[in-house]
Specification:
The protein has 371 residues and is α/β, with parallel strands linked by helices. It has a single domain (62-369), classed as TIM Barrel (Alpha-Beta Barrel). The chain contains twelve helices and eleven strands. It has helices at 26-36, 42-63, 80-83, 123-134, 147-152, 163-183, 195-198, 202-210, 215-230, 259-268, 314-324, 352-369; strands spanning 67-68, 87-92, 109-117, 138-139, 141-144, 153-155, 188-193, 238-243, 273-277, 298-304, 333-337. The protein has a six-stranded parallel beta sheet. The chain has a three-stranded mixed beta sheet with strand order 2-3-6. Helix 1 runs antiparallel to helix 2 and helix 6 (163-183) packs parallel to helix 9 (215-230).
Length: 371
């Protein structure tokens, strides 16, 4: 196993962790539809959401997780709901949705229509409820990475004729947002990002070039923006990033190992940890982890799939953790599902019972590996 010269000084390590989203309950689905149809008010919807979130918070505690999420129960999408509530961003129904292998999402798009800022974001109240419900456990909140506004959004060129000014304002907006979540009590924030997985994929990079985008430029600008956003954050605010290859109704978008971006991400992004998808052959090998050069950087191995209900072999998972430890010290590794169970409100193709079994599997294996 690879051993680094300096000790791991990250005070909070969750050996068994989760990406965040959980299958929406029938009560949530029904209430959201009733609200859309004008049958119940937003206040009534929120009371139902509160009750269901309290239930799944308790269930997470029973499973043995220490970092607790709200399952993203108040959202339709993992990213659009947050991004369109930033000052200067509007969401609208347009286009053909996002194309996955064999499936396509419903229509949704976002556009930057004025200068960016972070003010009175409604998810601050969402976090405060989770914080209260989590009690003596850690309340973990998930938001899209700043890269996603550029990657998935349209930018009005009359507002930002200079793209560097856009990225500078984006970093300032997120920096302000991170402080706002901290002031609300948050000490564990996860940035979700699909752009880096695209930048690992030869096929997706060709498609980006066809749209007039330069992958090398995106790597530089996204990395610089992220580092500006997280700079000078409070010492006790833990920030991680989940790099996702797509997760909609158990399908995916991109393939490819982390080698094309590993040196930039693992060596130069100033955060506390990465959630990496390693649940199938599309994910590549563990060799890119050789670029991890900080002893306080945690690597959360997503070896348990959230796309299907069958449980993986415990022995196989333990063996794969041992393989990863040839490149990163075992004390820096953790275990989780490869993604959330419902990146959109539709959810993946497994049952809620199978979901909890998967998370229990993560907890049980982690206890055996990190005794």
């Amino acid at each position: 196993m690879k051993t680094l010269n300096t000790s791991n000084n990250n005070a909070t390590i969750f050996r068994a962790d989760q990406v965040g989203s959980l299958l929406r309950s029938d009560a949530i689905k029904k209430a959201r539809l009733q609200n859309t149809n004008g049958e119940i008010s937003l206040e009534q919807l929120r009371k139902i959401e509160d009750k269901e979130i309290a239930r799944i918070v308790q269930k997470q505690k029973e499973v043995g997780l220490q970092a607790i999420t709200d399952g993203e129960f108040r959202r339709a999408w993992w990213h659009f709901d947050f991004l369109e509530k930033l000052v200067g961003v509007n969401g609208f129904w347009e286009g053909n949705g996002i194309q996955f292998h064999q499936k396509q999402t419903k229509s949704r798009a976002i556009k930057v229509t004025s200068k960016l800022d972070f003010e009175n974001h409604p998810m601050l109240e969402d976090y405060k409820y989770l914080h209260q419900a989590a009690g003596d456990h850690t309340a973990k909140f998930t938001i899209p990475s700043p890269s996603m506004l550029h990657f998935r959004g349209e930018i009005d060129k009359s507002i930002y004729p200079d793209e560097e000014e856009f990225f500078d304002d984006l970093a300032k907006t997120y920096k302000k947002g991170l402080q706002a979540f901290y002031d609300a009590g948050c000490r564990y924030l996860q940035l979700d990002d699909t752009s880096w997985a695209y930048l690992c994929s030869k096929e997706q990079k060709e498609q980006l070039r066809a749209k007039g985008l330069n992958p090398d430029y995106l790597i530089k600008m996204y990395l610089d923006t992220l580092n500006k956003a997280v700079a000078d954050r409070p010492d006790d605010l833990k920030i991680t990033m989940h790099i996702c290859r797509g997760n909609f109704r158990s399908t995916w978008i991109s393939s490819g190992g982390y080698e094309p971006v590993a040196e930039q991400l693992f060596g130069h992004l100033n955060i506390d940890g990465f959630f990496l998808e390693y649940d199938n052959d599309r994910s590549g090998g563990f060799e890119p982890l050789r670029f991890v050069n900080k002893s306080d950087l945690n690597i959360v191995l997503g070896l348990i799939t959230s796309k299907f209900g069958e449980l993986e072999s415990k022995d196989t998972i333990i063996k794969r953790i041992e393989e990863a430890s040839q490149f990163v010290d075992l004390n820096q590794l953790c275990l989780s599902p490869q993604c959330g169970f419902a990146s959109t409100e539709e959810g993946n193709l497994l049952t809620e019972e199978q979901q909890w079994s998967k998370l229990q599997h993560v907890v049980d294996i982690s206890k055996e590996v990190w005794k």
